[in-house]
Structure formats: C-alpha cells, structure tokens
Design goal:
Length: 439
C-alpha cells in the first residue's frame, strides 16, 4: 500500500510496501503463476546454451587417412583393414576393444604386390598424418575445421574458457544494467543476444569468429537465469519466495536434460546449436516487468496498473490507496533530499547487480575448468580430486550465510545490513545463553 509521510515543509515521501499488497491480492495467485511460467521458459534454453559448448567442441571418433587404402571420395571409418594399417590408441592398448590412433598410421611397404590392404603390407614404422577420416555419426567443430590431435586440444579447451569468460562478464553487466534500465528490458536484451549469437556460431566459418560469438552468446545466456530469478522472486509474496526460487531450478534442469537428449538424437552440433538458441525469441513480447523495480524507480502508476491487473486475475478485491494522480506541481515540490531518498531507499534497485556480482565471482575458477581434464596426463585421479576439494570448501563457506526463510524481503540497503547484523547478534546471544547454562 502507499503511505504519505509529511515533513514540516509538507513535502510527501512515497513508500509502497509491496509485500503487504501481495498479501491482499494473492502471494502466488493465477496472475503470478502465468507470468512466472513465461519467465521460466527462456530459462530452459539458457540452460541448454550453457552446455552446448560441451557437445560443440566434443572430440568425435576419427583416424588417419591411409593412402593406397582409403578411397579419397568415399573413405570409411571402420574398414576391415584398419587394425593392420593404424596402430591402437593408448586406451585400447590396455583393453580388448580396438580403437585406432587419431594421428599416426603404419608405413606401407614399397612393393607389396597386393591390390588390397593386408597385414603383411605394413611395417612397424609409424607416420604422422595430415588427413583424417571421421565417424559419420558424429559432427562437431573438430570435423568441420579439422581441430585434430593432442596439440590442438588446448584450442578446444579454449571454447569452454571463452564461454565462462562471457558468463563472468555477462552476469555482472546484466545485473547492473537491469538495476538501471529495468529487469524486463535487459532480460529481453539477454534473450536476443543469446539467440542471435547462438545462430551466428553456426555460420562463423572458423575458430576466431566462433570464439567471439561463443563469448557474446555466454554474455546473453548469463543474463537470462539471474534476471528470471529476480523477476520470479519479486512478483510473489514473502511466504512463497522459497517456492519461486526453487521452482526455477527445475526449468533449468529440464534445459540441461534437453540439450543432452538433443545432442544424442541429432549428433550434429549445428542442429543442436540452432535448436537451443533460436526458440527463446518467441517469448520476448510477453515477458512481464518487475513491479518492485517500477516502485523503486518511482514509476508508481505503471506499478499500480500491474497490481490492479494481478488483483483482477487473482479474483481479489483490492482497495488501493495508490494515488490516482500526482500532478507535476506535486512532483516539483519534492526536495532534492527527498528525491535522493526515494531513489536510494529501495533495496530492489540494486538487487540484480548484487546477484550478478555474486554469480560473476563464481565464474573465475570456471575459466580454468576446461583445462583441468588435461591434467589426466599427469594422473587420472587428479581432476576429480581437485574438483572435490573445491566443492567441499564451497559447501563449508555456506555455513556463515544468514537465514532468510520466512523473513521480509529487504527493501533497502540498510534493511539488508540489519539482517546480517541481526543474525550476528542472535548468534552472540545464543552463545551467551550457552555460557550461562554451563555456569
């Protein structure tokens, strides 16, 4: 509801307690459910785009092209003579299943006298190849741009690094831009950037532009989930915030599962990339705005329109005391001090930026993560051990965070500081009570 506080100079300061209003019109009614689903659908494709690089830069099965044996126009990956012409790779040497080496083949004898490739036609000497035959059932950028052999593996790892660099940049930038220009506007911009650059990756034609579009795609992808989270949590009442924040993760999980299914069915990085990137554009015209952000920016009439619509859809009667008219004369009477208070009072005005900064801090280690699997060359258990230690440290640090279950969503920076201070004081009081009990 809207409350007027009058100072001695008769200047009004406008405050709106949206949590109280939501209790009147429904904390998670039909209106919120409809709009919540609308912001969750792009999250599915955001999750898909966050994982497509794994399949895009995947290493398919391939082997050396063997002159005099392979047909240049119709080479077959698993020809019968391959075990004689190509040495086994390191993994198959210790197993019973033959897998051909990807970068070497056996040198042929100069005069073998045979029209076919037979075991006696080859020596034990190996040669490095510069042509390859790929398994036709898999397609990634390795096939299209011949990024082959171990010396080129860092180029493939760099795909993941560019992705996480874009995520790190996008989360903080989209958050602060959303606080400045609106949740909905930057949410839509993020979706468009994700969709357009996702498709452009397909037609990039080479690694340089592919890296650029991968980075920009990640920037857009990074803005979708955090802003959907903020939009979802801000549209419901305080008793429903936990449900709203958790339900969004199920949509994200669906997107992660979807990209795996699409990759399995298509086995083609181009089909996968287009399927994961293009559809979200369909949702940009029906995404709702954040009422809390509108209130924080002083755009009360737009906020009132959304509140009235929510009350109508939810079938609730709402006696609004939001002013139906605020004349320009009244606006002019607002002093500079009071204007500053209105624009800096609401915690909602920095909520997206805070979430973005938090998410960005989590991405710095992710920049190096694609290179961690390469540590298998030192010890096969090294990568998993490293990941486990880092996860344990992260889980331990969550123990110092304040509990916000069933508490009022902070509306001001001071409210947020008081929340942390209250938790600290509670812990100190509990410690004192324990000491007294011991005495």
């Amino acid at each position: 509801m809207t409350i007027y506080h009058w100072s001695w100079n008769r200047t009004p300061r406008i405050e709106m307690d949206l949590d109280n209003i939501l209790e009147q019109i429904g904390e998670f009614g039909k209106f919120q459910i409809q709009n919540y689903l609308l912001i969750c659908l792009p999250v599915i494709f955001s999750a898909a785009n966050s994982l497509t690089y794994v399949f895009t830069a995947a290493i398919p099965k391939y082997r050396c092209f063997v002159p005099s044996c392979d047909d240049p126009m119709n080479a077959t990956y698993d020809s019968d003579w391959v075990p004689y012409a190509v040495p086994p790779n390191k993994i198959s040497r210790s197993s019973k299943v033959f897998e051909p080496d990807q970068c070497f083949y056996y040198k042929q004898k100069e005069f073998n006298g045979s029209e076919f490739c037979e075991p006696d036609d080859f020596t034990n000497e190996t040669l490095k190849c510069n042509e390859w035959v790929f398994d036709p059932h898999e397609r990634s950028i390795v096939n299209d741009w011949l990024i082959t052999c171990p010396e080129n593996e860092p180029k493939l790892a760099l795909v993941g690094t560019m992705h996480f660099a874009g995520i790190a940049f996008g989360t903080v930038v989209s958050g602060f831009l959303a606080d400045r220009f609106g949740r909905k506007n930057i949410f839509i911009l993020s979706i468009l950037l994700m969709a357009i650059t996702g498709v452009l990756q397909v037609i990039s034609g080479g690694l340089f532009w592919f890296y650029i579009f991968m980075f920009l795609n990640a920037v857009g992808t990074a803005g979708v989930y955090p802003l959907a989270f903020i939009l979802g949590v801000e549209m419901v009442g305080k008793s429903k915030r936990e449900i709203a924040s958790m339900a969004l993760n199920y949509f994200y999980a669906v997107g992660e599962a979807m990209v795996g299914i699409l990759a399995w069915l298509s086995r083609d990085w181009i089909i996968l990339q287009i399927a994961a990137s293009a559809p979200p554009v369909l949702f940009i015209l029906i995404i709702p705005d954040s009422t809390r952000w509108l209130i924080a920016k002083g755009r009360l009439f737009e906020a009132k329109a959304i509140i009235d619509k929510a009350a109508h859809v939810n079938g609730k009667e709402f006696t609004s005391i939001v002013p139906v008219q605020l004349t320009s004369n009244q606006k002019d009477k607002l002093t500079a001090a009071n204007k500053r208070e209105i624009w800096t009072t609401f915690k909602a005005i920095i909520r997206s930026g805070g979430c973005g900064a938090l998410s960005t801090s989590a991405r710095f280690a992710a920049l190096l993560a694609p290179f961690v699997p390469l540590l298998e060359h030192i010890d096969r258990s090294f990568p998993l051990t490293l990941f486990g230690i880092i996860a344990f440290i992260g889980g331990f640090l969550t123990l110092i965070l304040p509990e916000t279950l069933n508490t009022k969503l902070p509306e001001t920076v001071q409210d947020a500081e008081n929340l942390g201070r209250k938790i600290l004081e509670t812990d100190q009081n509990n410690s004192k009570e324990i000491e007294i009990t011991r005495l």
